[in-house]
Structures are given as C-alpha cells and as structure tokens.
Amino acid sequence: MNKARINSLRGRELFSYLPAYYETSRVMQSDMEAKGSELDALYQALNEAADQFFVRTATWGLDRWEEELGIPTDRAKPIEQRRAVLESKLRGAGTFSGRLVKNVAEAYDGGAVEVTFQPGEWRFTVQFVDTLGIPPNLEDLKAAIEEIKPAHLAVDYAFNYLLIRDIHETMTLDELGQMPLNKFAGGA
After folding, report:
1. Could you list the residue range(s) of the whole structural domain that residue 74 is in?
2. DSSP class of residue 18?
3. Residue 44 located in a structural domain
4. Which residues lie closer than 8 Å to 133 by C-beta, 6 or more apart?
5. CATH code of the domain in which 176 resides
6. H helix runs in the chain, sequence order
7. Which of 17, 22, 62, 80 is deepest in the core (most CB within 10 A)?
8. 131 and 175 share a domain?
9. Nearest to 118 by CA among 148, 91, 154, 146
10. Is the pTM of this model over 0.70?
11. What stretches in the chain show pLDDT beneath 70?
C-alpha cells in the first residue's frame, strides 16, 4: 500500500479499513485523503471546543468565563493573566481564611505564598515566597483579595528582591545584565 499519498492521519486509518484490492487505487487514496482531512479538521475543532470548558485550557472561551463570573474582559492582558483572574475568582468562594487568601494569591502568582495574620492590628500580610520582584498582575490580585476579605481587615503585601548579598560571587556580569531591574530592591 502506498501510504505516502495519504497525509491525513484519519485518512490513513480509513484507508486501512478498505479491502486489499484498493491499495493501488489512486481514486480511493484521494477519496480517503479528502475525507480524512475533513475528519482531522472536525476532531481539531471538537478538541478546541472542549478546551473552552476548562479555565486552564480556554483561549477564545475566556470571554464567556469572564462574563459568567462578572469579571470585566481585558483582551490586552496575556491569556495566562486572564486565566489567573478566573481561577482566583473560582477558588475565592467560601468562608474567609488564610487558606482562602493563599489559594487566591497562588492562582495569580503561580508560586508559593505565605499568609500571616496580625489580629491585634486587624491586618494580614501576603508574602510572595518564590517570586522575585512585583508580580505582573498584582493589581488584579489586590482587587480579588479586596473582594474576599472582610472590610475591617487591612492587607499588606511583602515582596522578595535580589540583594547584593544574594548575588555576590554567584552571578556573572552577563547574568546580571540579563536580569530585569524590577527584580532588584529599589529597581524600576
């Protein structure tokens, strides 16, 4: 059988079901290639549609998720940031607790976060453990935490930055040149 004439994955599968006397038929090869290409496109469209049912895989369906959850759509933001806002909103339901804040913050940041409470001062602190500098979607995170926290509590954010003692004799000048300034204390 001349399989090289059929480029479609499903076309080759369809062709394999035919009787052996069609193996040399260019007409059947062309027919199976055409039908297989259509089936390939159909399966791809079905898979893309199924991806829209899950926030972590949605692309063009993010608009519907945002509408459903009452989040303003901002197509200028990267898809990953939009997904983080949606995940946070979905995780943010329930009784207010440190675990809830941690889940919401980690959905935005993608790294480890510690939440500590100072009950005497009516405040809590969100410490970004794994992230250097200020997370790119901090304003979205602040809005999400404002939405879930009780009004009487204040929130502080603590960030990690590179300090001279952290990089002294561990990074080359080339590596330092590649590092964005916002990763350093006092950076832009």
Report:
1. 53-93
2. S
3. yes
4. 159, 160, 161, 180, 182, 183, 184, 187
5. 3.30.70
6. 9-16, 26-51, 62-69, 79-91, 98-109, 138-148, 164-167, 173-178
7. 62
8. yes
9. 154
10. no
11. 1-4, 92-94, 168, 182, 184-188
